[in-house]
Amino acid sequence: MMEKAYDEFLSILAETRDVEELRSFMNEILTPNERSDLAMRWQLMVEIHQGQTQRSIAKRHNISLCKITRGSKILKTKDSFIAHALRQKHPEK
């Protein structure tokens, strides 16, 4: 991987506090399909976090269980950043 370029990209994300500026940046750097894929990944994580079954998520979004299983494993990982972020954004679980 291009480590330096990736680190620079991450630092731009970390420094951008305005949601509309971040939206503009992401719209410029990602294709519509890439943005859609990213949004879908996040939505899957939210639904797993909410306790919905993997099978119901797969059926609702018409996707394979493999895509959902990856997210489920991440949320079960000790010290998962995503799990922490979801607890902050969706504390009902």
What does this structure look like?
By secondary structure, this protein is an all-alpha fold. The protein has a domain at 38-93. It has six helices and no strands. It has helices at 3-15, 19-29, 32-49, 54-61, 65-76, 81-89. Helix 3 (32-49) packs across helix 5 and helix 4 packs across helix 5 (65-76). The longest helix is centred in the middle third of the chain and has 18 residues, at 32-49. The relative contact order is 0.09. The model has no long low-confidence stretch (mean pLDDT 94).
Helical segment tally? 6
Could you tell me the number of beta strands? 0
Largest sheet: none
Residue runs with pLDDT of under 50 for 5 or more positions: none
What share of residues is helical?
over 70%
Q: Beta fraction of the residues?
A: under 5%
Rounded to the nearest angstrom, the distance between the terminal CA atoms is 36 Å
Task: Give the overall pLDDT as a whole number.
Answer: 94
Shape: globular
Radius of gyration: 15 Å
The SS-based structural class is mainly alpha
**Could you spell the SSE succession in H and E letters?**
HHHHHH
Topology (SSEs and partners):
Layout lengths: L2 H13 L3 H11 L2 H18 L4 H8 L3 H12 L4 H9 L4
Helix pairs in contact: 3-5, 4-5
Kindly list the characteristics that best describe this protein.
93 residues, mainly alpha, 0% strand
Offer a concise description of the structure.
The chain has helices at residues 3-15, 19-29, 32-49, 54-61, 65-76, 81-89. It has 93 residues and is mostly helical.
